[in-house]
Amino acid sequence: MNLLHAILLGIVEGITEFLPVSSTGHLNIVEKLLGYQIDSPGMTAFTAVIQVGAIIAAILFFWKDIVAIVVAWCRGIVHADKRDDPNYRMGWAVILGSIPVAVVGLAFKNAIETTTRSLWVIVGALLVWSIVMAIADRRDHGERTMVDVTWKDGLIIGLFQALAPVFPGISRSGATISAGLFRGMDRVSATKLSFFLGIPALVAAGGMEAISQAGAISAQVGWLPTAVATVVSLVVAYVSIAWLLRFVSKNSFTGFIVYRIILAAVIIVLIMMGVVAA
Prior knowledge:
There is one protein chain. This protein is mainly alpha-helical. It contains 14 helices and no strands. It has helices at 3-16, 23-33, 41-61, 63-78, 86-107, 109-113, 119-137, 151-161, 163-166, 172-182, 187-212, 214-220, 223-248, 254-272. The longest helix is centred in the last third of the chain and has 26 residues, at 187-212. It is globular and about 60 Å long. The two termini are 21 Å apart. The relative contact order is 0.20.
């Protein structure tokens, strides 16, 4: 992979990782257009590894919140009288919410890396989940915020998150935000919880691919382009996070839903015209 392609893919990852539009779907499409084999071990690993850059951006952006959650969780484990702290409950929500995606990721690892990386799967997931997002976004949302999150919220939202790696196009953030809205959370809180749940899941996925597919990345992509794309995704994702939180505080997700439908239509046209192979 040349560095120009690496920079482009890093930008795509950074912009789309936390938006409910499917970063994996976008990366697969752009990789296809650039002529790469998206189901090869090297490209699959590359896609997972550069997501770590975006996750590092989330860690930096929410550093104070993350430290508060970790400290409160540790205190609550040791001292029973500290368990009323909302950050203690948030710690359990993140832990329990991370279990489903880990189980599904390991159970369906082969399918995730090969079968479901078809553009037709992405098209179907984009369209079907747009309907789910529309229903969630139009519900009468309650007043639940981050301080109201429980372990049950984490587990249910984590189950939704587990769908994303199996069906690229759903979007991990789209799945978790929708679940948060179904649980009666406001848009900003549902979005922030999506960030927190994504940190352990994507760090683990990227780390595992980096270790298990190090040889494939080296032979098929190259570690320099992978590192460049990861750094670019970090910088771009940091800006994207700040923008998204401001956006959802004043707007619905209608724009993202419309975009997903248009993107699905564009992919169908590209496949039918033979510009890209499914």
